Amino acid sequence: MSSSAQKPPIVPYQHSKLSKKAQVAQMFNEIAGRYDLLNRLLSAGIDVQWRRKAIRLLADIQPQHILDVATGTADVALMLARQYPQAQITGVDIAEQMLELGRRKVAEAHLDSRIILQQADAEALPFPDHAFDAVMVAFGVRNFENLQAGLKEMLRVLKPGGKAVILEFSQPESFPVKQLYHLYFRYITPMIGKWLAHHREAYAYLPASVSAFPYGQRMIDLLTEIGYQQVICRKYTLGICSVYCGYKKQS
């Protein structure tokens, strides 16, 4: 057995007997009410720019049907609907409380006719093969219990020639950004999470899950092995965040 296989999964609640998937759902349900506020605060608002840049990477295919995986409170779904006014958006998430907030935001934006949100497991998507022109996921894949299974499901529901865009935290490698980044993520983020969300576990899980994620070339290699074509990676903000793009092979 490889050393990587021996490592226990990174989970929000170290003493819980629940699976990672169940723990992640519980965690996001518990912090749903403060999730958007903390995202803006912890990133100084730059997470909005990361999402916008990633969404624009779908422009080359002008998608008609888009799946937003791990949609959460529908931030990305709403941005997609505004960027691509011809598109229908389906958002899925395992945390029902996050979806409830998302549905309110969609209703307030009067986009109910174009955005549908539903509870679903990213590793067992309830859609037929070749159902979507594009699949988007922002800051969600590191929460998958089985990363390969989730990425394979995303590829399965893509139409031939369709495009996947995956936005996720990565790790800067240059001095002193690397050192400052780890200091902020390891110590300051959990402290802010405890004060504002009353949930230190969620914001201690964040840096741990980022550290364990196969970013950069490892992620490119994984996507290529699964079957994505023309996979590229772009780094944002000195490597704090990366976006991965890949296509489904034309039939």
TrEMBL record:
Binding residue positions for S-adenosyl-L-methionine: T73, D93, D121, A122
Signal peptide as annotated in the record? none
Q: Which domain of life is it from?
A: Bacteria
Give the GO terms filed under biological process for this record: menaquinone biosynthetic process; methylation
Please tell me whether the keyword Mitochondrion is annotated for this protein: no
InterPro entries xrefs:
SAM-dependent_MTases_sf (IPR029063), UbiE/COQ5_MeTrFase (IPR004033), UbiE/COQ5_MeTrFase_CS (IPR023576)
| Gene3D superfamilies from the UniProt entry | Vaccinia Virus protein VP39
GO function terms (MF aspect): demethylmenaquinone methyltransferase activity
* Pathway field: Quinol/quinone metabolism; menaquinone biosynthesis; menaquinol from 1,4-dihydroxy-2-naphthoate: step 2/2
Catalysed reactions, semicolon-separated: a 2-demethylmenaquinol + S-adenosyl-L-methionine = a menaquinol + S-adenosyl-L-homocysteine + H(+)
Q: Per the record, a Pfam family?
A: Ubie_methyltran
**Sorted alphabetically, which keywords does the UniProt record give?**
Menaquinone biosynthesis, Methyltransferase, S-adenosyl-L-methionine, Transferase
Q: What Enzyme Commission number(s) appear in the record?
A: 2.1.1.163
Q: Which family does it belong to?
A: Belongs to the class I-like SAM-binding methyltransferase superfamily. MenG/UbiE family.
Instruction: Report the protein's function.
Output: Methyltransferase required for the conversion of demethylmenaquinol (DMKH2) to menaquinol (MKH2).
- Mind telling me what this protein is named? Demethylmenaquinone methyltransferase
Organism in which the protein naturally occurs? Thermoflavifilum thermophilum
Name of the gene encoding the protein in the UniProt record: menG
